[in-house]
Amino acid sequence: MTRPEDAPLSVTELNRRARQALEQDVGEVWVEGELSGVSRPNSGHVYFTLKDERAQLRCALFRTRARFVAAPMRDGDRVKVRGQVSLFEPRGDYQLIVEAVKAAGEGELLAALERLKTRLAAEGVFANARALPFPPRHLLVLTSPTGAAIRDVLAVLAARWPLVQVTLIPVPVQGREAAPAMIAALGLLNRQQALDPARDAILITRGGGSLEDLWAFNDEHLARAIFHSRLPVMSAVGHEVDTTLSDLAADVRAPTPSAAAEQLVPDRRDLAHRLDRLADRLARAQRTRLDTEAQRLDHLRARLRHPGEVLAARRRQLDQLAGRLRRAVQARLVLERRRERHLRQRLALRSPDRLLDQAGQRLERATLRLHQAMPRALARHRERLGGLARELQAVSPLAVLGRGYAILEDDRGRVVRRAADTTPGQALEARLGEGRLALTVAGIEGDVEADNPGSHGGKTSE
């Protein structure tokens, strides 16, 4: 279906056709210009305007490409960008979709400066942090003798602390000769410091200007000379927004020359006000101390009494203590007398004489009972002993021996029961009813009759 030539287009369709035409006819291009209105919303995209003397171009650098841009993008930087010419259809904005960014012109200088700054920082050139004397006794100022910086510094020092001694070291602060001149001056001042120890601080300063005007203070060798200076260095170059390598290498940085002078010395007016406040505080403290001591003196005077009164009070106290002591002694004596009577009564009840009498009576009764019981006990024991003797006599072997029998024993005291238990020539002992016989076995003749235990089967000899 064809569209009539006089039929109107919708805004959306027109913008779409324009976008397609731009992307097809112009396509991807490199564009050089100055950054302006750089914006970084939370989305991560970067929006800016690229402009020159007669025109400007809206640009969009999306987040996926922005992370590959190493150099910081700041207003005023001159850059070269590569992108696709397009049109933002919802608003009809003509724009460049940026794919790459690199520095151009001054932007290249800034990129080189950033690389140098990173390298010096890694080497520790920016690690100085010595404190400057406050206030310095002799301040050495490296700056142009005809610039506004020295006038501002001297005016502030004169107003705040005119006691400081200032020596101007005239050096160029712009152009090719500036950095070498300042390096040579720093070397000379450090060598002379041993001759004049009162020189205790260096101030390097100049007023504001363009990037080219301040470029001498971005010299690598000047930054290293400041870093190696034995004297502490303060740097105050340009305005507050300007930061040079000299500022970073110095021990202390000030945003402007006037601010440097204010940091270097105290304000005598503030010290005067402080002295006035301290004097007032001292006077008030003195009055307060006098009032306090006066009250303390009155209190002590009220407490102070005549020695006679003190002695009389001590006598009364002594009389009271003496009375208490007498009463306590009397009470103790009464208590001890009672205790003594009680102990005497207990001792009388447990007297040794009484105990001895009682023990003697018990001994007499026990002795009487013993004498009475002893004959009866002896008679019983004699009677029992006679019975046992008779029983023993009845079963005693000696009684058998008394009837003519004998007991043969060998040399070990063992009883010989059989003839076979002896050997010819063996010594034996015969135990009789009365006495003993020593025998010797002459020979063994035969067996002993079992029914004749009294016979002897062997011959013996005495």
From TrEMBL:
Residues 128-438 form the Exonuclease VII large subunit C-terminal domain. GO terms for molecular function: exodeoxyribonuclease VII activity; nucleic acid binding. GO terms for cellular component: cytoplasm; exodeoxyribonuclease VII complex. The keyword DNA damage does not apply. Keywords: Coiled coil, Cytoplasm, Exonuclease, Hydrolase, Nuclease. InterPro entries: Exonuc_VII_L (IPR003753), Exonuc_VII_lsu_C (IPR020579), OB-fold_nuc-bd_dom (IPR025824). GO terms for biological process: DNA catabolic process. Its EC number is 3.1.11.6. It is found in: Cytoplasm. Residues 9-101 form the OB-fold nucleic acid binding domain. The keyword DNA-binding does not apply. Residues 268-295 form a coiled coil. Heterooligomer composed of large and small subunits. Bidirectionally degrades single-stranded DNA into large acid-insoluble oligonucleotides, which are then degraded further into small acid-soluble oligonucleotides. PANTHER family: EXODEOXYRIBONUCLEASE 7 LARGE SUBUNIT (PTHR30008:SF0). Belongs to the XseA family. This is Exodeoxyribonuclease 7 large subunit. It comes from Halomonas aestuarii.
